[in-house]
UniProtKB/TrEMBL annotation:
InterPro entries: Cadherin-like_sf, Cadherin_N, Protocadherin/Cadherin-CA. The keyword Transport does not apply. This is (spotted green pufferfish) hypothetical protein. One of its GO terms (molecular function) is calcium ion binding. Keywords: Glycoprotein, Membrane.
Amino acid sequence: AQIRYSIPEEMKKGSLIGNIAQDLGLDLKRLRSGRARIVTGESIQYTELKADKGILVVNERIDREQLCGDVTPCS
């Protein structure tokens, strides 16, 4: 299954992005025992999956200009 979230830039480290377990309809026990992971094409891990809580949080501050430059939309 796949899910997408829009993340406003400049969110503080540790800010909640979304509840993966709830949004995918998974119970926490299954999420913890599985091999859930976040796949991005970036060398910097901007997000972190907290599998014990089933949530996705900001791991590094996101700067749109640094990531995308003048490209619009930025995704």
